[in-house]
Input
Amino acid sequence: MDKYTDADWNWDFFKELVDDVDENKNIIACISCGKCVGDCPASKISNFNIRKIIQKILRGDRSVLKDSDIWFCFLCERCKRVCPKENINIPLLILNLRNESFKKGYGPKYNDLTKYVEMSERFLTNGTVLDNPLGKELPQDRVDELNEICNFARIKYVFKASKNKKQKKKK
Amino acid sequence: MESQNLVLDLEKIEKAYPENPIEFFKGKKLCLFKACLEAYFPGVRWGIQDLLEALDIEVVTCSQQSCCSGTFFQRNLITRSQFSAINERNLNEMNHQADIVLFSCNGCYNSVLRGRDFLKVPEVKKKTQDILESLKKKDLGENYPGKYDILDNTELRLVHDLDFLYLLKSNVLDSLKFDLKGLKVAVHYGCHYLNLERDKDTVESYLKDKKKLDEFVSLFGGVPVDYQEKESCCGWGASQIVLNPKDALKVTFNKLKSAEDVGADFILMPCPTCLYTLSKPEYREKMFKWFGEMLDIPTIHLNELIAILRGCEEERCITLRRKTPRLEEIFNIITKE
Output
């Protein structure tokens, strides 16, 4: 672990994350024991390292939002289970960081989300992520409700971008 | 008021009906939450549906239920409030027609509980309610009292198939025609069952849940085998397998290889998403290409296995899975008279 001094701590970023999701305040209790990293499936195959991510946040280092690492989390919740401290919710923190990353324009671009395009399309047109669901299809008025719920969500932009792409192809 | 997580209190049922917990479910209507991936594995749905009907328990599916939307939430494509609203809408519809909801998929179960969890945050709850209010104004579909209110005071309860089946294990065993004939079985619980704390109060409940599948294997006449990667992820990893296939499939490969190395005849699990990842023939081929070994260990969902053991026709249990490595071989071993 890098050496640091008291001057390295900066709470601004931490406070912003807590303002957004109150539960994030609990990461202050992290004792850097590393159990989360040792048991993490993403850490086995990538540079994803929860301990380092928490350190960066507590030092106010916003470069974590640009790190591709935060997109490697499996959201398996194992870190939450093995953490010796109570109520540190790493998966939720990661989702929050990804959200901030999106907002700043660092998150995955449309091209990186192409794998989600078909799933998003099916969800907003059939209410499932697969074609030919087992049993009856969701009635259209229920699909309309899903579209209403998802107003202004990124899923709508992915869906819209896919439609634009299709129209361009046709032309 | 704090929103309840709605998880069915199994200990309470065990205490109230120590001899025959099935009595608790008599006269109640059970709704099967439709997991999207059941489209690939219909035996997962039919396995439990047929069993419940054989046990004289009323079972329904809800035609108004959508996907749990966990896939989209996990990739930040919808907000917490939108995610909670999608799940609350589903729960409303199911509450309208059933008393208990059963989940065959770890992902759906986790999604619904996570959605309920978010409602503990007043701001998220307010936004969720606002979204649901906007649906009310649209006034679409059938109307009923309390439609699309957040379920604060409700009798509706939620339970994972594995927990439900374990509670009724003596009834399940009584319904079986075949046994596992000493087959060696590696069990995989899946992260969102194993690591989930939203439905547990004590350390004991954690430990107990980590033994249920192993115990089922023994009760079915098989031998549960321990393996290095027993508690590891299947590799799906919130769609990492779709976005970073080579890295994620390494996790899948290690899991399958670890089970093969201890001589397991198949892997048993309670989740169709894990089943999809661990069994998909294209993934096996990719692993062969990237990691140099073709793994052919079969994979079975608990509901499918119960259907096979109950003597259901192959068409009813595993018909769409003929490409799954060596699955028919296991089917034939178990069902040999």
Remarks:
- Strands of chain B lie at 29-33, 58-61, 100-103, 157-160, 184-187, 223-224, 266-269, 299-301.
- The first strand of chain B starts at residue 29 and ends at 33.
- Chain B touches chain A through 58 residues (CB under 8 Å).
